[in-house]
Amino acid sequence: xxxxxxxxxxxxxxxxxxxxxxxxxxxxxxxxxxxxxxxxxxxxxxxxxxxxxxxxxxxxxxxxxxxxxxxxxxxxxxxxxxxxxxxxxxxxxxxxxxxxxxxxxxxxxxxxxxxxxxxxxxxxxxxxxxxxxxxxxxxxxxxxxxxxxxxxxxxxxxxxxxxxxxxxxxxxxxxxxxxxxxxxxxxxxxxxxxxxxxxxxxxxxxxxxxxxxxxxxxxxxxxxxxxxxxxxxxxxxxxxxxxxxxxxxxxxxxxxxxxxxxxxxxxxxxxxxxxxxxxxxxxxxxxxxxxxxxxxxxxxxxxxxxxxxxxxxxxxxxxxxxxxxxxxxxxxxxxxxxxxxxxxxxxxxxxxxxxxxxxxxxxxxxxxxxxxxxxxxxxxxxxxxxxxxxxxxxxxxxxxxxxxxxxxxxxxxxxxxxxxxxxxxxxxxxxxxxxxxxxxxxxxxxxxxxxxxxxxxxxxxxxxxxxxxxxxxxxxxxxxxxxxxxxxxxxxxxxxxxxxxxxxxxxxxxxxxxxxxxxxxxxxxxxxxxxxxxxxxxxxxxxxxxxxxxxxxxxxxxxxxxxxxxxxxx
Length: 570
Ligand code: TEU
Fold this sequence. Notes:
alpha/beta, eight-stranded parallel sheet, five-stranded antiparallel sheet, 20 strands, globular, binds 1-O-alpha-D-glucopyranosyl-D-fructose
């Protein structure tokens, strides 16, 4: 495998993620759609991003907002038509941008023809899914008769009893998301054919949903039980299975991923730098990069569920990202993200979303992320500094995961107040409130009633207001993206974390040949002094991004202030 992959296009790209339900509604039904996306391509172009990752728009009963697909070859009428997707591909390509679709093939919808056929025990599609008899010695359908003690990510058992056939089928997510059996070569061939169909239509790559769950460890067996949970939450039993590398290589060749330089990122729960090196190595035709969750679980009690909140300890986060930087420094490639449609707003989660600090805080988190080595992702609304939704009642939550957690926690006796506290910080709906394009009714998102309320602050935090701010979040993202496009040291420079134990400052360098960039950021709402003795060269360094040397005291950072310096070489 030649090293040309070192310079492959997506290693220099910046990705923008759109969650179509919440981006822009063109027909007033309160739900975002493809024509809404088409009407805002200039926004993406002005930001300077290179790739659009579009969360699913395929036919779906929307049990999990499209991550439950009933037809991979059709666009859900809620979102538009195939012609709209063709127009989107053409519009992006005309602007020099690429389109990445969401590939959801660990599971389908239970309304997909493949699954409805597989319900018939005699069907040759039966083995396309995981059907199993009841646990030995148990009456089918009775308490505890599930084939294994696995829990679903959305609460309850991961097995659904099917009266008609007297057997159970596996669903790691909702019961309307049955898992595909990738052990079956016909399943894999059908998936590769579908991927090629979309690539032949002009799609430039795929974001692959929970792709490291497709290879299950056989035989399927019980997992460890966690106190307080009736079902096993042990993810390692279903993640990074024995045939995953084989399947990724087979897919790469069958779809010409490396050959056609397609963009690929695999979402991988429970993945480590070692896993990522294996799956994204430039010496093997597998994936381009992965989404890890390690940095997304540092503000939860260890071994507990994501809603068991724990205050983030900054050194933990700095060290974790450094671990991935070092782990993939010579082999593999990192993705860089704080936000997506499953994670809350970083300013509210890890920062300070008060009006006084929101803008500086947004810029600080953006600077430290975009100056790390890897491909950065901007989630819709992040570029204008959106904050969490601030829901106060359980009824406001629409997300299946939130409802599942509410039911599970209530059954376990957790007071509603504590459930709302956890959801208020970590609930996925915090990322899914409609994009506020302007102040005024419907926030410029819709002329109808939005499927999820707009944030209460949409009058203040909206695209029009952000674009008008000369020193605001929007302009800052444009600067960061310009830096990555212009400076090879930002794209390729070796990473080194400094002052790892400092609880206020995030300081690191990026070096390439003679060029060294120093990034310093104050990750608190108080003033922070810089330990000049430990930062040689800072005194005479040139400011690349941040407050000009003239206006600032080089030794002190304002609350949430971040600067990028070029150290004098030689
Ligand atoms: O997410 C995988 C996943 O585990 C997250 O659902 C989950 O929210 C976790 O709590 C994140 O911390 C993918 C999709 O991104 C998600 O939207 C889907 O719900 C899920 O898979 C099933 O397709």
